[in-house]
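#lab-general

N.A. 3:47 PM
ok so I finally got the sequence cleaned up, no stray characters, all 152 residues accounted for. can someone with queue access submit it? mine expired

B.Y. 3:52 PM
send it over

N.A. 3:53 PM
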Amino acid sequence: MRLWLLRHGEAQAQAATDAERALTPRGCAEVTQVAVQLQGRPLTMLLVSPYVRTRQTAALVVEALGFAGPVQTVPWLTPDSDPLEVLRRLDRYDSGELLLVTHQPLVGALAGLLVHGHRQQPLAMHTASLAELEGDMLAAGIMDLLALVHPQ
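B.Y. 4:20 PM
back already:
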């Protein structure tokens, strides 16, 4: 199982609500730059937070890759979601290559949980950072961090 974790690109500082913050032009460029890392990968599905900036990030990835597979918006990938709950929900996605498009602090905590088995060492995920994890199954402490790419 290969899991890709992508934090959204740089977003506007303010909007009516946090969920409505859109990507900035720089954020769009960051995502496009990092999406290159996913070219040629056999992604099976994209799971995306319902927030505007993550949906925009996913759309840029889909466009850059020509991805024709399923893109599913799920309410459990928001900034304050519980990594243990996310891990439980990911249990049904146990094969192939999956891309999650989400936020800090969730994405760093989830990566730390998957690699280290606890949340005391979250992975540093900047805007549009992409982490590649691999393991026999999606479970705490048994996945290996293969790569961590930050946009320049």
